[in-house]
Structures are given as C-alpha cells and as structure tokens.
Protein 1
Amino acid sequence: MKENHNKECFQCGIPITGKSLRYDIGNGQVEDFCCFGCYLIYKTTGLRGEEGNAVAFLGKFGFGYFLAMLVFMLSTYLYGAHMTPDDPQAKQFTTIIKYVILVLATPVMLLLGIPILKNSFSRHNWLNFNTDTLIAIGAFSAYFLSVYSVFTDKPSIYFETATMILVLVTFGRYLETSSRVKASNFMKELMKLAPDKATVIRDGKEIEIPVDDVKVGDTVLVKTGEKIPADGIVVEGNAHVDESMLTGENKPVLKQKGSEVYAGTINTDGFLKIKVNKPASEWTLNKFIQMMKEIRNSKAPISRITDTVAAWFLPVMLTLAAGAFAYWYMEEGFEKALIVSMSVLLISCPCAFSIGAPLALWIGLSEAFREGIVIKGADILEKLASVKKVFFDKTGTITERFLMVHRVKAKDEETIKKACALEKLSQHPLAFSLNLYCRQKGFDTSNYKVEDFKTRYGYGVEGKVNGEHLFVGNKKFVEKHGLQIPEELQKLEKQAEKDAEIPVFIFNKKKVLGLITFAQKIKDEAPIAIRALKKLKMKLAVLTGDTPYFAKIIKEKLGIDEVKAGLLPEDKIKEIEKAQKQGLVVAMVGDGINDAPALSKADIGIAMGCGTDITKESADVSLISDDLRKIPLMFLLAKKVRRVIYTNIFWAFIYNIIGIGLALTGKLNPIFAALAMVLSSAFVIGNSVRVKNW
Ligand code: ADP
Ligand code: MG
C-alpha cells in the first residue's frame, strides 16, 4: 500500500477520492459521504440506524417524484395553450393552471432542492465549487424565473425543467450509490463470517456470551454445524472443519487435539473444545478484515488522473457556462441564456469521471479476494494489467511444496536426527518435508539443543546441534567449505540428479556425513496454468537454485524456454533486473520465504500458499492457496478491470464533449441534459459491475 487515504464514506465504506461531502445526519453529527446518493441511501435505508428518519425521507422523495410528474403533465398543457392565445376563457384557465403548477413545484424544490442547495454552500471556501453548486444554480434559477413569470404573466415558465432536473439528479445519485453499496457488500459478507455468540466454560458452567467478551485462555465449545467463534487450539474432541472461506480449500479439514482452528470456519460433523490462544485482533479473520480495509483505502494512479480531471472540470465548466450565458444573453436575451447555461452545467457533471476508476478497481479487488487472491492495493491491481514477464521460483511454486524423502544414506541414525533438529528451524519446503519424514520414522528430537542457527540462502542451513557444528545443504554448500564428497555418496548423488531428485548433504566442518535425496513433482495444474499465461502473451521464466537436470524436465514438461538453474538468491535478482532493463514490467512468483528479496525486486511480488499468513511483507499479492491457476486468473481479472476503466473514461469523455457542444450551441434542453447525466452514470456503473463476470 503506497498511499493511504483515511476518509471513507459513512454509508458505502468506499474510500473517498477527491473531496468528501459532509452532511449532518442528525443530532449534530457530521459525517463524510462520497456522494449525495450515499447520503440519500443512508437516509432512505437507515443503514447505520435511524429507521424512522429513513421512512420519512423515502416518503419525501416519493412525494417529490409524484409532484414533479404532475408538474410535467400540466406543463405539457401549457405548451398547447400557447397555440390558442386569443381565446379569453382558455387564457383564464391557463393562468389558473400556472398557479397550480407553482403550488405543486414549490414543495419539490423544498424537498429535493434544499439538500442539494445546502451542500453546495456548506464549504468554508465559497470558491470551492462542487457538482451540487452547478445543479443548485441551474434548478433554482429556472424556478425563480418561472415564479417571476407567473406573477408578471410572462410566458417563460420552466417549473417542469426545475423539478425534473432535481428528480433526475436525485435518482441518478441513488443509482450510483446503490451500485457502490453492492460493491462494498463484500466487506459486509466478510464481517458476517464471524459469529456473534460463543459458548464458553466459566466456573465449570457452560454459558453463552457475545464474541467480543471472549478472552485469551477461555475454553469454547463448538457443536456440529456451528461456527467456530475464535482462533485457538483444540483441546478435546475432533471434527471436520470447513475452512474454505479462509484457505480456499474446499474439502473440510480434520481437526483433533492440538490442531489450530480459526474463527469463522464451520464445524461440519463433530464436537470441539477449543482453548482460545490469541486476542481477537490477531484472529485470522479479523486480520483479513483489517487488511481489506487498508487495501480499500489504497489509491491507483489512474484514480489520481481522473480526480484531477474532475477537479478541473468544475471551474472550467462554470466559466464556459458563464461565457455561454453572456453570449446568448446578447444574442437572444435572458431566457435563452439561462436555459443554455443550465444545460451546460447539467451535462458537465463529472460523476462518470470520478466513480469510473475507483468503482471498477474496488469490485476487482473484492472479486480477487473471493478467489483467494489478496491484492494489496488498487495501484497493484492496476500494475498487474501491464505485466509482460513472469518469473517463477521452483520449489513450492512450480513443484509441489511437499517433497518425498527417497534415499537416505548416513553414518548413523543420529546424523539424520541431528539434521532434522536443525531443519526444524528452517522454513524451506525441504526442511518441512524432512521433518515429516522424521516424524513418520518416530525419531524424537524434541530435547535436541540447537544454537546459532543460520539460513544460508541458496545453499542450506547451519548451526550447532548438541554442541556439534552441522551443515545441511546442496553440493555448492559442501564445495564452499572445501570438503570432499565420499565416493559412495557421489554415486548416489549422480543417481539422484538423473532421477531429477534434490540431493542434500549433511556435513560438519571436517567431512561429509550423509546424503538425503528428495523426489519432487511438478504440480498437476502447472501445464494448464502455463498454457493460460502463454495465451495472455506473457514471457515466462523459471529461476531455480536446483540442479540443471530438473531444469530440463521443466522445459520439456511445461514448454518454458527460459529455465535458469543453480542460481543463488542474488542471481535471481540479477535476472529480474535484466528483464526490467529491457523495459518489461516483471512479476515474480515464489513462496515469499527464501525468495523474499526477489519478490521485493520484481515490480510485483506474488507469494503462493500463504494460507492464513496473507500479510506476508515482501509480497504485493498473496495467494491463499498453492494453486498455480490463480496466476493467469489474476492477470485476466486485472486486464478486465483496466479495460473497464478505460471504456468508462473514454465514454465519459465522449459524452461530455458531445453534450457540452450541443449545450453550448443551444441545442440541448436542460431536462435532456439531466437525463443524459443520469444515463452516463448508469452506463459507468453498469460497465464497472461487468468486472464481476470476468
Ligand atoms: P528453488 O526454490 O529454486 O529450489 P532455493 O533457493 O529455495 O531454490 O533453494 C536452492 C537449493 O538450496 C535447494 O535446492 C537446496 O539444495 C538448498 N537448500 C535451501 N534451503 C535448504 C534447507 N533448508 N535445507 C537443505 N537445503 C537447502
Ligand atoms: Mg525456493
């Protein structure tokens, strides 16, 4: 997250780009809203409280709409009346109708016009124009001109224009906002995952308490079908738990004594007693929610551009409107001047500019999250669309994270145990796999003492185990220490390389003590994912610290031409730099642990298999699962979002150019200008929501 804006809309929760609107929501409480529509929605739906007020407001809006329609219908009678100007009876009737229209139009101005008027003057700096200023000037000048005409019996009556503009504008904003609310539903869904009650044991009794009161150390009971209310460790019972909302894994996971469980996941079949081990702020689900909030506040460069456009738009349009007024006043008099400048003000509403980008980006970010792809900012989503080259780490990325220990050759069992004890501190997939092997063999290393543990990136690990300085790592590591590999182990190593296995040596400062080989497997979905990426015209490359033998297999199996083997972490960085120097936007996919520097170096670092650890620092994108297919999916989504934003901006631009042209030349009725504005907002919204069916 490069830049944070801490203001978000009180109603929809979407970050406010540009200036916020501040409305009094009762009791003197003033809140920020992103648009008038959000304020409307807040008032009508009463979300965040105040139901009564809401109903009243909905009534106001409905009433205003009804009156505006009447005004409109009666006004069409007035148009007709002009054709028979000589009939005195008709003239009398027309006058009555004019007064009726005045009476009907006035409450509409009060109900729908006053809120807009208020907002346009609520700024401390009166030069600080907003769209409401334009609409208020337009609608109220039409209204007052009409009132003047009624009393002086002049024909210029524009009540229908004034009221229809207000109704259309209000409707347009309502539309705009309901789409934003839809877009922000995702946040609410996420929050709804958490149950609000928990059954805990206090003083030997089972009691139900609000989740907020659950404390570290509490024992929580979860029955079949219930949601787990807190993060903790199972102390009794077993059950299959549906964790799909957090891990993207569809199969329920067996949880038994000692397993970790997470708030918001569902106990599908058993009974669990859980000891809460973390405060609520550190529960995975809450960290997800917190993170989404931060992501939502990030801003993409494209939004900065559209914000600037929107900010310039108003003063420019106001000047144009004033110019048009002056010109038409001289040409055809006050009335025409008023109508033309009103049309100019209405057509130039920059809503399409200001909502086009943030709306599409936010929907994109939410859709990605649903797929278990955590993109940490709108700027990153935008940049993803321009990626031209993707580098992959190998172990755990192209190949399965779990490797099978195949051959073990060592002086004695003790050597293997010591290596295991050392690897317990490493986060490399090799270390994890070796430990699983040891557990299966029943080796107990729990009372082994490890000191001075160090990771040697690209080589292996070292440290003192029970006082003996040990090294576990690849051939390069051995050579670096100037040791000879015994002939027997050399033979085994050759064999391992031929079988495309990873050979790992155990040695001390004096000699090589043993060898373990790990069988690795390319992920089943890798060919599909790579094919999809190629279709997207991405350049692909694999960077690995492993031997060239396996590199060849990757080349053949996946059809990736560029596979570089035997690389140290700094070599991987050099490869990335080389591509960047060619002007390519580069993404690097890895596990985010031993390849963190490479992930940081790339324009976009993507960490796979983060599980519940999505906050990984080095990564711009965290994938909850290990599934490689998420990579092309992510690029596809980013491109779709970009396309939507560009079409939004393009059409908003075209619409404004044509509309302003028509308005300036006096060919656009203000009602049509208002209608066009509503339609353009509706288009931008509809277009942005398309991101959902990518
Ligand atoms: P890659 O992900 O491409 O396999 P790494 O940089 O993660 O590359 O690892 C390179 C090599 O370093 C591994 O193939 C292995 O031989 C060695 N290595 C790294 N970490 C360890 C470890 N914890 N234990 C043993 N060997 C390791
Ligand atoms: Mg690696």
Protein 2
Amino acid sequence: MDQYRVLGHPIAHSKSPQIHARFAELTGQALQYERLLVPLDDFAATLERLLAQGVKGCNVTVPFKQEAFARADQVSARVQLAQAANTLSLVDGQVLADNTDGLGLVRDIEVNAGRKLQGLDILLLGAGGAAAGVLGPLLLTGPRRIVVANRTAAKAQALVEQHRRHPSLQQEASGRTELIALALDAHLPAFDVVINATAGSLEGAALPIDARALRPGSLVYDMMYGPPAQPFLRWAGAHGAQTRDGLGMLVEQAAESFFIWRGIRPPAHEVLAQLRAAL
Ligand code: ATR
C-alpha cells in the first residue's frame, strides 16, 4: 500500500491520520497514513530515510515546516511566499513541496462558512508562521483590503513587503487589494472578516483587538480549534460576530494535500461534520 506520514514534534495529538483514513475510505483509495514523532534535530535525516523507504508523501507540522521548505527540491509559489511547506510529495527521489494551509482556510471560509472574500476588508492578526502560510491565498481571493496586524509591527511589515514583491501575486485580483501592515495596538477600522493567526490564545494572552474592529455580522475566525480558540471566539460572539474555529481549515488543508497526492478531491465537508460531531 502507498505510504504517507505526518511529521511533527509533538505529534500524538494530530488528527491527520484519522482524517486521511476517512478520505481514503470514502474515495476507495488504498493507502496507509501514520504519525511520526521526529526528534527536533532529526528532520533532514528522517526525510532521507522516508525517501529511501519509498514513502509517497508527508504532511509536515510544527516545528518543521520551514525546514521542509529549505530541504525541498521544488517548491510551489505558495511555499515561496510562506517560506514554509506542509505537504511533501516524494517522487523519484525528489522532494516536491506545497503548502495547503491557506487553501484550506480560504475554502473553509468561502465554501463551508459561505462567506466570499472578494471585495471584503480582512484583518489578519499575527505575522508568524501561521499568518505567513495563509496570506498569499487570502490575497488571491481579491479582497478590498487586508491589514496584517502584529504585536511586533516590523514582522507584519516584512511579511507584507515580501507578498507585495512576489511575482505570483502581481495579478489583477490581488493587484487591486490594498495590503497594509500595522501594530496590534494601532487604531484599527472595522472589518468584515477577522482571522486570528497569533499564538496568543495558547499562552492565555489577553484579547488582541478592540471590539471596534468588528462590524455587525463580521466573521471572526480563529485558526486554532478546541479550548484555545474559545476565549477569543466567545468575546467576538458576544459582540455580534459570526464565529468559526479552525477545525474546518484542518480538514480542508488535509483535503488539498490528499488531492495533490491522489488527484481525487475527498468529501471534506462530510468528514468535517463527522469530526465535529465526534468532538
Ligand atoms: P506560528 O507558527 O504559530 O505562527 P510563530 O511563528 O512563533 O508561531 O508566531 C507567533 C505569532 O503569534 C506572532 O505573530 C506573535 O507575535 P510577535 O511576532 O510579536 O511575537 C504572536 N503572538 C504570540 N504571543 C502573543 C501574545 N501574547 N499577544 C499577541 N501576539 C502574540
């Protein structure tokens, strides 16, 4: 059977094996997908071993996404923009890298939550790896404006500059989008969509923004799911926002990986509903 792995540290909590097993079942694909705990200093050697074993593909999660980008023989434009990869195809001894995080986020917002992003005002909170992974695909939906707000404003500025320069984003849709970097504590106007890509909720940090950043009916999205996402989403809900956690993004980014590897689109919506019910 074709072999796939998810590499991370820690990895025990990963739901990817469960999600991909269900995708395989529902699409009639014969494959095996397993977790692999990789020692922090052993990512490169692990990948060489997997290549030698004939493993077909890997998902890569924290903290190895940047190392996966650095090791890849070929990278997609999305990987160049994110400087990180979460989906590796191992083909003829070569590592082909993609990043499906942003695609998964966009699909969860546009298809599952039914909110088309074209022409909207988006606030992206954070400028670390999680934010970098989604900014390119968000720009390609053609919003009116994206503000990247970060505690360390210089990091938001660097991320914005890197995206402004990238040839894959010099297209008509993204060319019309106003892209701005701000400090988290700057005065923010109101937005249609607010996406939390900071690690603040894991640290139990205070809420990052003022409620004036919300419009009635704004969509407030936290890329985390489960308990860490709750304080921010509860606060947003109390201010009249529609709220959504990152479980759909998790399933949709997995579906994009599955499509890259197998050429078949699994019924992500169905798997998301089952996962949500099981939680
Ligand atoms: P990740 O891969 O999860 O994005 P990261 O690259 O370390 O992790 O980035 C963490 C992000 O969360 C950064 O945007 C960070 O802000 P700084 O760039 O100023 O460090 C943000 N972050 C972490 N803790 C935070 C807090 N308590 N309040 C606000 N932002 C926080």
Protein 3
Amino acid sequence: MAKFKFEYIWLDGYHPEPNLRSKTKVLDMDFFHGDLKVLPIWSYDGSSTKQAEGHFSDCLLKPVRVVPDPQRINAFLVMCEVFNPDGTPHETNTRASIEDDEDFWFGFEQEYVLTVEGIPVGFPKHGYPRPQGPYYCAVGTGNVSGRDLVEEHFDTCLDAGLHITGINAEVLLGQWEFQIFGKGGKRAADDLWIARYLLHRISEKHGIKVEFHPKPIQGDWNGSGMHANFSNHMMRDVGGKEYFDSIFEKMTITHPEHISVYGSENEKRLTGMHETQSIHKFSYGISDRGASIRIPIATAQDWKGYLEDRRPASNADPYKVAGRIMKTVNGALVKENGAVNKEKAAKKAE
Ligand code: ADP
Ligand code: MN
Ligand code: MN
Ligand code: MN
C-alpha cells in the first residue's frame, strides 16, 4: 500500500466569476491508474465559499477528471463538480448545466497578465514602458518578462497530460497566452480550469499574481481574451458556405446571450480597438482580427474547418462559453449526407 495525494479542485460561488478552490485527500492504494470511479465523493464547508448557509454547510465534490500532479510525489489533480447534499447539481455547477457534444472540438487561447503589486511584470514602478509593438512573441530582456514562470507552467501542463498546444508572449508586456485543446466542451474546459489552477499555484512561489481581468491596463494597451476556436463534424468534414452562413446567422441573433456568459467587464476590452470588435456589434470576416468571429483563411478556402470566436474574455468560465457555442451551432442548419436539410432546419428553428 502507498499513500496517494489527490487534490480535489472545484469552483466556488463567487460572482461574477468563480474562484478555484482545492484541498488534498490522502488515499491508501496499491496503485492508481486514473480510474475516476475509485475516487470517493468528498465534502467541504460551502458556507466558506458562498455556496451554502452555515447551519447547513456541506457541499459535495464529485470527481470528473483526474490527471497526474507532476509537482508532487504520488499525486493527482482531480477536477470536481459541486453537488448539493441531496445529490442535485449545485446552482454554481456550470459544468453540469451544459449539454455536451463530443462532436465539438475546442481550442481555447487563454491570455493573462503577470503582475506584482498591481503592475505588470516588466513595467517600471512608475509610468510606462515603450508603447506596445515589440512585445508580442518577443525575445530578449526588456521585450518579455516572466518567462521562467511561463515555462514552468508549460512543462507542468505537458507532464500532467493536459492537451496544451502552445504558448506565446502577448502584445502587452508581461502578458502571455497558452492554448488548450479538447474534444468535447467539458473535456476542453476541464483541462483549461486545471491549467489555470496550475498557473495560480506556480505563481505563488514566484511572488507573482496571475491577473485574468480582461482589461488590466487602461489606455493604449491590449486587453486579455480567451478566444474560443471551435468546430464540429459538419464544419470539419462536410462544410459548405451555406452551412457556415447559417452558423453566422444564428450567432448574429444570439450575440447578447453569448456576451452574457463571456466574462464580466468585457466591455472594457471589446471596444472596437486593439484587435477587437465592439461589444455592441456582431461581425465576422475572413482573417479579420477586428471581427467578433474570425474565419481562418484555411477554413474559407474550401469552407471546411474551424472558426475563432474572439469575444470571450480572459476571465470567462469555459464551461459556459463552450455550452453556449454548442447550443447556437446546434441550432444552425441541419445537414444529412452532405446536403442541407432545410425541412429539418425549419423544424428545429420552430
Ligand atoms: P491565433 O492565430 O488566433 O493566435 P492560436 O494558434 O493561438 O491562434 O490558437 C488556435 C487554436 O485553434 C489552437 O488552440 C488549436 O488547437 C485550435 N484549433 C485548431 N484546429 C481546430 C479545430 N478544428 N477545432 C477547434 N479548435 C481548433
Ligand atoms: Mn493565439
Ligand atoms: Mn492571443
Ligand atoms: Mn486568437
């Protein structure tokens, strides 16, 4: 028998964005091969996380995804959903509320800013560095800051088996991005939350704060987004301009619903400047980084592939974002055997 450490991770009840919470459970086991079913339901004091009243405080943690914890010995990270004592999903359990569709692939581009005492790393204590321009994908002292932390996070995500597909320095000095890919909305969002958890945990020992606010620095500085790249089987393998147009049509109608779950204070970022479209407008365009949805050039070539929703803010809950995208896209034209089935689409729209 060995002692294994399981870090149960969950989202608390804070508004408008939840915080990550976690605590460690030790289990005696001969071995652990990643089987979720052997991990017990656990409980915590929901009155300390804005999820329960003091006199009836227990909330339940149900493991939904487990990966190795590369920074501890004999340890695993366990993403959990929160349930009420009666077994129903807690109202803050956004994962349980989405209708998942394994047919959807998501690639989230998570931007964030590293700060010390509220100032981005690399910024002088007073005033500003050179205007933005040289910092994106940069190298060299004065051009980037915080790389040690970023590299440590990158390797830890890879070692944990998260589907991280890349990193880059961003437009604002001290701002970085990592990308998480997943098949199915829940899987992609689980991995993004675990990657965020690791980023926060690693930041502790560097004395640096990870800032997910979408517009941490006012003025002529880029904000932070969480571009959501998405595709389903129809988009990837069948395609056709007609199908994509029907997605854009649905996206136009549902713009307010999307914005409502794309993160708080996003209006400070979606201004129509700094590679964004205004929060009040919906637009789409080929290779257009000033649009709400960018159509990658490769997708437009044969109308097959993925789309990039540029609206989600860096602080958005990826469960909500993925859930909303799947809902809207599933409401678009229905195709069968490669042909647009207008009758079925009309029925669906009723
Ligand atoms: P950008 O040019 O916007 O900075 P990135 O390379 O940072 O683009 O991010 C693109 C993302 O798109 C990656 O996370 C990648 O995994 C994802 N992606 C690629 N193909 C697909 C697809 N078919 N469906 C969903 N996401 C995809
Ligand atoms: Mn990117
Ligand atoms: Mn970016
Ligand atoms: Mn992007």
Protein 4
Amino acid sequence: MAQLAEIGLIGLGVMGSNLALNIAEKGSRIAVFNRTPSRTRQFVSEAGALGANIIGCETMEDFVAAIRTPRPIIIMIKAGEPVDQQIDALRLLLSGGDIAIDAGNANFRDTIARFDRLKDSGITFIGMGVSGGEEGARHGPSIMVGGTEQSYTRVEKVLTSIAARYEGDPCCAWLGEDGAGHFVKTIHNGIEYADMQMIAEIYGILRDGVGKPAGEIGAIFGQWNKGRLNSYLIEITEKVLATTDPESGKPMVDVILDRAGQKGTGKWSVIEAQQLGVPATAIEAAVAARSLSAMKTEREAAEVIFGMPRYTFPLQDNAALLKDLELALFAAKIGAYAQGFAVMAEASREFGWSLPMPTIARIWRAGCIIRSQFLDEITKAFTEQPDVANLIVTPAFSAMVAESMPALRRIVAAAVTAGIPVPALSSALSYFDAYRQARGTANLIQAQRDFFGAHGFDRIDGLDRPHGPWGVGN
Ligand code: NDP
C-alpha cells in the first residue's frame, strides 16, 4: 500500500483543486475525490510534479482508505444541500475521531446545525472560512477555523503551511467553537461588499462629478495605493481601470454592464447584524446598492422620467480634491470595518464564542480579498484594547477619524449637491455622526410609541412616570 495521505479533499472545482495543489506543494500528501470522476482524472493528469503528493480516488471507499486516521477531510463543494449529502455519504465510511471540514461558504447557522448533528457520531465537524479566491487558494488564503480546539490541533500544521503569510505570520487561526469560522468569513465578506462599494462611489464622483476618464482615475488609485489606502482592492482597482477592452479599444470598465448581484454571505452579514441589533449601515448600504444596480431596466425608465441630474459638482478638480477623496475613502472605510468588528463582538457574546478580535484582524492582513496595511493597524488597536466597545474610540483610530472625517463630510456634501449617489460613504458618515452624539432624537420616537401604543419610556430625571400626558393610549 502506498504511503497514506495526511489529509483528504472532496470537490475539485475552482477552489478545491487550487487548495489541493497548494497542500501538495507544501509537502503534505493529499487524497482527492470529486463527484464526477473525469474531473479527478483530469486534475491528477495536470498536476505535474505535484502529482507525486496527490492520490486521485474514484470511489469514496478508496478515498477514505487512502487517508491516515484520524482522517481530516476538506469538503469544498457547492454550499447548502450538497454538503449535507456529502456528509451523510461520508458518515457511512468514517470512524470515530475523523474530522469533516466544510470549507465552502456555508451559512454559519447551517454549520452550527451540522456540528450538533455530528456531535454524538464520533465524527468531528469543522466549519472553515477560506478567503482569497482562486489565487488565494492556490498560493495562500486566509483561513478562519471554527470547531473544537482539539480537532484544530490535528489540522493546524497542514492549514498553517498553506495559509498566506503577513511578515512571516500565517493567516490562519482557530476562532472558536462550531460556527465561529463561517460567521467571521461572513462578516469578512460583508466588509468586502462595503469596501468595494465605497471605492466604486469614489470612482463615480471622479467619473460623473469631475469628468475624468477611466485611465486617469486608475492612475489616481495607483497613487493612493502607495499611501494609507494601500490594499489589494485598491491595487486591483488601479489595474482594472487601466485595462483596455480588446474588442472595442475602450476602457474595459466602460463596456461592462453596471449590474451586480448580492447573494449568500453579503446578504447574511446584514441579516445577522440586524438580528443582533448592531448597526452595520455601511455594509447594509453596500448590499442594497448591489440590489439597486441589478434593477437596470427600472433605472433606465426612471432616468427617462427624471433626466440626469443637472447640478454641477461644487468642488474644483485640483490636488486638494484628490487629497479629500483619499481621506474620505479612508474615513468611510474605518466606519465599515468598525461596524463589522462590532457585529462580531456582539455575535461572540450571543453565541458564546470568545472571538479573538486581534487575531481576526491579524489573519485578514494577507491572503483574503480585504487584505491591507490598514488591518495591521486594526490588529494593533485591538491588541491594546481587545474589549473596546468600538474600533473608532481606540486612541489610534479616534485620531485617524478626527483627521479624516471632515474630508468625508465635504465629499458627501459635494456628491449630494451634484446628485451623485454615495449610499455607503454617506452611511458611514451618518453612523459616525450618530455614534458620537450623546443626545440623539429617539426621545421623540419613544414619545410617539407611548402615544400610540402605551409602550412607556425612561425619563432623564429618573422619575417613575413611564407614560406621557397624551390622553391617548396611557
Ligand atoms: P465550483 O463551481 O468551481 O465547483 C463546485 C464543486 O462542487 C465541484 O467539484 C462539483 O463537483 C461539486 N459539487 C456540486 N454539487 C455537488 C453535489 N451535489 N455533490 C457533490 N459535489 C458537488 O465551485 P468553487 O470551487 O468556486 O466553490 C466551492 C465552495 O467554495 C463554495 O461553497 C463557494 O461558495 C466557496 N468559495 C468560493 C470562492 C471563489 O472565489 N470561487 C471563494 C471562497 C469560497 P462536479 O465536478 O461533480 O460538478
């Protein structure tokens, strides 16, 4: 019998095949299985020298037999029902101590349910968030693990060997029990939606407010990528804007339909924020903006009725404007990340996970789509104050907010004046304005609720008079 594999992987699609090659390249022997056997044969035949570390299996029985016990098996297939089917099939063949690892984009509530379902079977379940797309899977993703700490110990060596590294530090960690890893991945994706939307809104101001062509806007993002906005998303934005369509000779972005979808993790991040009662307005705005973008036909019809806005963008196209746009994007980004981390802090309490905030920021610094230098600053802020109520009140971030928020205010004001939609940027600004306002306006809401529904209220003087003298509903 050939040497047993250290780990197994089911699902040789885009992510699974790249993850398997990454594992083989880092020196671990891996057994692979795919529902459609021809894909397994093709994968092994194209693996080149890495094939020496890969055992291609065409039956589940051969696959399970090829892995050293206790067997860790990564399931990297279409999320949802197929994962349950795959787990059911595996259950018949696995033995106590074996570990099923769902590495797809699962809803963390499904992960918790699967964890519970397998609890008494002797088989351990891990829910693992993997970020970084195809390239990350092949050369180093960010890996967010949820499950028992003991089961993580069995797979830690392989996972840290394939993860991305930030200054030598692997971007992989155990984050808590059951659904913790998939929850963190969900919020990662929510933040990703917000980050991308805010970049797109700044692009919109430069395109529609200032009138710049794609290439020039790309060069501006290129400049910003050398500063505090340095990140993967800004880097690819520069590259995307600099690319020409080979068919038409026009900038590539100018021939791409302005219609994006929202599904899965982006939507779930907003739903969970709402369930937990944590404001994640910038993320919500980003998800809603995608839904609005998808309403292309309606938007076209509405433009016929209302026409294009005829207001002039009120700021001069000069170096000061570019500085303001850069700072505005930075300020809004702080708001979105602060919201994402606040959602995770509340979920940690709600689900009893003890999510380690500095570790989460640390493993997002490389490998994942939102990787950036900025996450290193978040890591430092949470390391100093792991239990702080909100990122924006840490000493380092409150200074950054004070410096950059005025620019966000000027840019949002100018965009609104010109009729340019900036839902995520303005949500981040309003979040800040509301968060730092000791006296808000919910006193009126409480009065209205008491008026029509006798819901009662707390008084500022502490007196025990929980209803107003409205004469109705009290
Ligand atoms: P692909 O569409 O490339 O591959 C899908 C895989 O799932 C194939 O191996 C397919 O097998 C298998 N599959 C589908 N249905 C079943 C089923 N009913 N039973 C068994 N196997 C099945 O998907 P990706 O690799 O892109 O995505 C895999 C997972 O990773 C998803 O959960 C996705 O959300 C997640 N993910 C994807 C990222 C990306 O950038 N693409 C990033 C991070 C996570 P077959 O060959 O037989 O059809």
